[in-house]
Design brief:
By secondary structure, the chain is of the alpha+beta class. The chain is built from 16 helices and 19 strands. β8 and β9 form a beta hairpin.
Length: 588
Amino acid sequence: MANLILSFILPPSKITILAIALFCILPLHAQKTGSDSLHVFDLSRSGQLERLGDWKYRFGDNPLWALSDFDDQAWGRLHPGKEKETNHGIRWYRTRVRLEGEQNDFDILAMYFSGIVSAYEIYWDGRLIHRNGGVAAVQAAEIPGDLLRVVKLRREWTTPGIHTIAIRLSNLHVHDSFRYFRIPLGYLSDIRDKLNEFMYLQLFNIGVFFFACLFSFALFLGGGRQRPYLMFSLYCLASVLGIGILAYQLLWNINIRYADSLVWLSYIITPLSGVLLAIFFILIFEMPRKYYHMLIVSVLAVVPLLLFDQSDPVLVLLYASGMALYAIRKKVPGSLTALIGILGLLAMMVFFYWGVVWYVYTAGIVFFIFCVMLSISRQIKQQNQQHEVAKLRSARLETELLKKHIQPHFLMNTLLSIISWIREDPPTAIKLIQSLAEEFRMINQISSQTEIPLSDEVALCRTHLTLMGYRQDVQYALEAQNLPGEEKIPPMIFHTLIENGLTHAYRSGENGKFLISCERNNGTVHYRLWNDGSQLEKLSRQPAQQIEEGMGLKYVKARLEERYPHRWQMDYGLRSDGWEVNIIIAQH
């Protein structure tokens, strides 16, 4: 029963799970009497299916073993999970059933066989009633049969009384060892109804995972290509493929020799889907040391397959529960909802271990997908809120930027300089007016942007130095080293630092020099701005808070945090006979 639930949450690991799965949806009435565990089937009751188990078995081949009056007291009794039979030779199985009551006039009895062995023959009271493939003692002579068979029983064969069912089989083309089986016996219409019901459930489950896959992939494409959405989309796709394997067998009833290909495919899909689901939780919960956790869940997904020859997602889900608890402690949005979904999935597995209602697993899948989507929606809501806050901060910074450069004393001083130059040197006054207009034009273009090309920033800085040089009647030089022009930075970062350098580093009439350089190293970009000046030693003796407020560093830090949240560092101070500002940005 445990294999069944695992095969639906994460795709099936064995072809034989199909048989177990179908048996689990059947309302069973197993009544046994005496030491021989005689099965009892009430012919007057429709809707019931008797699982024929408690088989006696013997290796060898003798046609007398099919007879009803054959004494099989010395045969071994097959116990589920205890005997591991080999794949060699021919063996026989026998059990008995007592039919009671009056048979339905409009229906006949039937037995359902699913993925048992390579080839088998069915005997009812010593009469050969069905053959699937060709039973043989060697592989070359054996003819593999189909995966699924519904064996109809004629009305004259199913009279009230005790009947003997014998199975002659060989298993030379199926690698999975044959251990134990239960065969449903019931009215043909009931068996077909249950098969259709099972198929509809699988198609519904495929639909749930398919639409979840499309929705998650749409979020990935339209939501900034965030990897958690892609991982969940791939997990849903793997689940679609896994359940599709099961549905494919029901629809097409393949030859059992090809079942191994589906088994190996499920051996790949099942652990892979578990790993994809765990990676989704690792990314969406923002777990530290992500690759360490990915390695652990990969081991947890593969170990059950190696040790127990079956894929079991319980370990992966338990680990995901632990990650969800960590995320709750860190107050990650949607983590509590995700934990509820995971625990609901685990509770569903417990129900199946206990053999509770079949439809629970479908409800569990829907509940799990709903919780995950709700968790994602809450994270998207928080991201939207953070985006709105960032927009407001950006608008405030833009306003501060414009106020900073269009302030009365700046315009007044510039206009006074223009008047002075008009009297003394009209051509210089014209150049000053042109520089002022060019700087305001450039500032107006970039003020609403969160980042601009580094080449534009350098051009703005040169324009400002030219303007200030005309105003002060001095020469300011800007040297750029190793600057990648295509690199983008927040607007007016270096402009603000250079402007503050002009204000605090130089005496009136003193020429100045600035140097901007860039280095890339181990996933980081290191910007360095250096300038000289006779007032620097006096500046370095001021308190750090006064320096920060007086030099506009708060604006620079706000811009860096807006564009590179928690991924930047900045330090400044008197170094190498000049003032140096270092900005280090970690790349994605």
